[in-house]
Amino acid sequence: MRTAVLALALALLAGCGGASGAAPGAALSPSYAASLGSTSASMPSMLPAPALPSRASVQADLVVRPDVLVLGFALQETDADPQRALAAAQATVANLERQFKEATGGASTVRMLGASFTTVFTEKAGSEGDAVSAAVDGVIEVRLAPELDFWARSRQAAAVAQVRREVSAAVQAAKDGRRGATFGQPRAEVKEPEGHRAQLTEQWLRRARSFAEAAQAASAPLLLVDCAPPGAIEQRPISLLEVGLSLSVACRLDALSAEPKRD
């Protein structure tokens, strides 16, 4: 039996069709994520007109509603004793958690990730000598219930921005350089994207089979072969109401010619 192997890149199948709101080849604009929680240290007397965000379509296999706002943060406290510096950082995180819970109506949680310690060399008169800076980082998650509309979700985003502003102002008011706070931009995500893997896989298979049926010859049907296990599900934020999910699948299409008839 002659076998003609067509080295077809099935990744192109993602461009054959996508979820509603997706466009092949479109790049994700960063303007949406940057607009959720930015703050300013000073307010001019006259504000310019708001810029119109670029809402470029996102290439995705499936568009779903996000259920969480995710915000990274890092806090720093400094003391001559590293244990006291860490205790101060722990107290600051506890206060931060309380502020976010109050602002979001109990919808937020704090998940700690890492801690690091750095020696700080001081030259000020009367100082206790070298100090130690304790930096801790983590993630703040704000739950977004499915029934929340755009305005309700926007109010949660505004609450996040307000707490960021209050914490940053408190750090700046210290003026001794012994404290620090950094916040990332909030991202609208799906907390458990694996819950959509079955739907993403079935959708990919439908597109692959449809492509194979259209491209194959009657005497040489196309079959999926050498499929590798699918990778992680990728998320791309679109808005407070939509997030794009994509699943990368690597396979080949093998065209098998029919066996010659024997006399």
Helix/strand-derived class? alpha+beta
SSE pattern: EHEEHEEHEEHEEEE
Assess the beta-strand content as a share of residues: 25-35%
Mean pLDDT: 80
**How far do the termini sit from each other?**
16 Å
Total of domains: 2
Keywords: Signal
Protein name: Secreted protein
Tell me what the structure shows.
- With 263 residues, the chain is of the alpha+beta class.
- The chain folds into 2 domains: 3-22 and 193-256, no CATH class; 67-189, Alpha-Beta Plaits, CATH 3.30.70.
- Helices cover 27% and strands 27% of the residues.
- Strands 3, 4, 5, 6 and 7 form a 5-stranded antiparallel beta sheet that branches. Strands 1-11-8 form a 3-stranded antiparallel beta sheet, with helices on one face. Strands 2-10-9 form a 3-stranded antiparallel beta sheet.
- The longest helix is centred in the middle third of the chain and has 25 residues, at 150-174.
- It is elongated.
Features:
about 260 residues; alpha+beta; Alpha-Beta Plaits; five-stranded antiparallel beta sheet; three-stranded antiparallel beta sheet; 4 helices; about 25% helix
